[in-house]
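Input record (one chain):
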Amino acid sequence: MAKLSQEELLAQFENLTLIELAGFVKAFEEKFDVTAAAAVAVGPAAAAAPVEAEAEQDEFDVILTGAGEKKIQVIKVVRELTSLGLKEAKDLVDGAPKPVLEKVTKEAAEKAAESLKGAGAGVEVK
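The corresponding structure, as predicted from the sequence alone:
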């Protein structure tokens, strides 16, 4: 078998689908006991890089900042969003600012915030 140049290999890979290419990468990693991870720079350049990269937040807290004019509607929405009883929901609304939901997904936090705002409450998502 003749040795292929880098350009010839790339031309062959152009004809593969993503699924075929992913399968090839997996087989390559297994055969040569390597991983196709990005190389990490070591040395002075790495030391100058920031230690912590800003990671995208995946857990959010929905905090009730105020009940607004329609306190009863806000209590109803709090009960819908949580498993709290009437007294507990009322205490939460009266004690604002307090968290209504903690460590939820972005979609759930946005949906809860919209529901609370629709009832007239002041809401903050952190």
